[in-house]
Amino acid sequence: MVDRTNPEGDDGGIRTFAFPADRSISGVGMQVGPMGAGHTWHSEAPLGRVHRIDFHVVMVFAAGPVRHMVDFTEYEATAGDVLWIRPGQVHRFTTTSEYRGTVLTMQPGFLPRATVEATGLYRYDLPPLLRPGPPRLAALEASLAQLRREYEDTATLPPALHTAVLRHSLTAFLLRLAHLATGSAEVAGRAGDTTFTLFRDAVEAGFATNHSVSAYADALGYSRRTLVRAVRAATGETPKAFIDKRVVLEAKRLLAHTDLPIGRVGAAVGFPDAANFSKFFHQHTETTPAAFRAELR
User: Fold this and answer.
1) HTH araC/xylS-type domain: which residues (predicted)?
2) What DSSP string describes the chain?
3) What is the pTM of this model?
């Protein structure tokens, strides 16, 4: 079920919430604490409406069931499940569900790039909902509990050292989480491919204006052939298909969760001409933008 109310924002767009550094202990780029009534990452966050966040959220549930929408899919989580929402994904809380457990939020820039690569923080191809077995869940919860203790202990270390310890503890937790998410050494190996991850990050930053494989290859300093080989190895797709999939996802988000005219949706994803946008959308979804919006509403 799609929320048809217009999210907050004067232009009818989906509102994005920044990481609330003012709510962190000592202002560090992460938070960890209990889920439940009175606990949220932003006092103005429209919990019952679709919105974005520009940081990571990991929820480890102690009870359930809880229904949570992430990028057009409703996930049902229960005790022992883990939900990982990445920056830029649209999502919506279910106001009738009781969220119980522990929630970790983290700012993308809090960790060094090597850690970001090793932990697959931007693996948008992986499912948000994870269901670890008892041994892995116990290890994950123990690691998260240790991270929370370090986060809350501001008395035994000076601030700089406290932050360094937090980064190490957070890395340990994320490595366990990444191992759970990837599920196999083969997939985990692909996640570490620098060529692909650089391309993926560039597409995430530029898909709204740049749909050219050659332009991405030039900007990254790779030949087109090298880029094609790296993206195929990581995803099984061509670079063009990867770019188009990201553009289509953003178009779907805007069509479903905003009241922007279709022409403005097209312009927002790099198609100044509405007819070209409709043709592109139909080619990739076998439906028109208007029909897609109407079906959801």
Assistant:
1) 197-295
2) ----SPPS-TTS---EE---GGGSGGG-SEEEEEESTT--S-TT--TTS-EEESSEEEEEESS--EEEEETTEEEEE-TT-EEEE-TT-EEE--TTS---EEEEEE-GGGS-HHHHHHHTTT-TTS-SEE---HHHHHHHHHHHHHHHHHHH--SSS-HHHHHHHHHHHHHHHHHHHHHHHH-SHHHHHHHT-HHHHHHHHHHHHHTTT---HHHHHHHHT--HHHHHHHHHHHHSS-HHHHHHHHHHHHHHHHHHH----HHHHHHHTT-SSHHHHHHHHHHHHSS-HHHHHHHH-
3) 0.68
